[in-house]
Design a protein that fits this description.
Order of helices and strands: HHHEHEHEE
Number of helices: 5
Distance between the termini: 122 Å
Strand order of the largest sheet: 1-4-2-3
Shape: globular
Strand content: 5-15%
Oligomer: single chain
Largest sheet: 4 strands, mixed
Helix content: 25-40%
């Protein structure tokens, strides 16, 4: 009996250690600021993407009832040029069917903010791209949800971390551009992307302020 108890205890300890190791591995897998910078700082040229038009195209295609729709595996990418941009794929956890960010993902959002204010990334603007895996919801509902989630990340970066709103462009692609087209229902397709989009326009050179006009002399008082 004692031997059995010892073996049971040993199994319990082994299981506990394996759970601890898995948890530690998950924690070390969390991206660092330098990981994010390394993904985003090799910008070469801007993509030819009209963002307002793309938002409209996403919604129109998501609403469409195409008789011969090729299905999620063969559906063409709606913005293939985005694949040419430097990208960081973030595993941001949201409450189900909402744009509410779960506390477990606050650290990742903070590290994204830290990366965006690094000197090597300050000259650039960024896309915040929302995606959703294929599920029981309609494509239209998923397109709307992906846009709301991208908006939510933008709002946190602007309001909490004071990133300039001019540098951030949220866009939701829903199911219209899967990250893993071979597996439309994979959780990978729910990841959020940060893409280096374009260079900020350079500021106009500062001009010296005009010299103030000499003050008019007051007329002398007559006695």
């Amino acid at each position: 009996m004692r031997a059995n108890r010892l073996s049971t205890a040993a199994i319990g300890i082994a299981l506990g250690l394996s759970v601890f190791a898995a948890t530690a591995g998950a924690q070390t897998a969390s991206p660092t600021r330098d990981d994010i910078i390394g993904k985003l700082d090799h910008f070469e040229e801007a993509a030819e993407v009209d963002l307002p038009a793309l938002k409209q195209q996403v919604m129109e295609r998501a609403r469409a009832r195409i008789k011969n729709d090729p299905g999620p595996v063969n559906r063409p990418l709606i913005a293939p040029d985005l694949a040419k941009l430097p990208a960081f794929n973030a595993q941001i956890q949201f409450d189900a069917d909402t744009p509410i960010i779960q506390p477990a993902s606050y650290q990742t959002v903070g590290r994204i903010a830290d990366a965006l204010v690094h000197s090597s990334l300050l000259p650039y603007t960024f896309l915040i791209v929302g995606h959703v895996e294929s599920n029981s919801k309609t494509r239209e509902a998923n397109a709307i949800l992906s846009q709301r989630r991208a908006d939510a990340i933008r709002d946190v970066l602007v309001n909490t971390f004071k990133i300039s709103t001019k540098r951030l462009h949220p866009i939701g692609l829903g199911e219209e551009q899967f990250l893993d087209r071979a597996k439309p229902t994979s959780a990978v397709n729910g990841q959020l992307q940060i893409l280096t989009f374009a260079k900020l326009p350079e500021d106009e050179p500062a001009r010296p302020a005009a010299a103030p006009a000499p003050a008019a002399k007051k007329p002398a008082k007559k006695h």
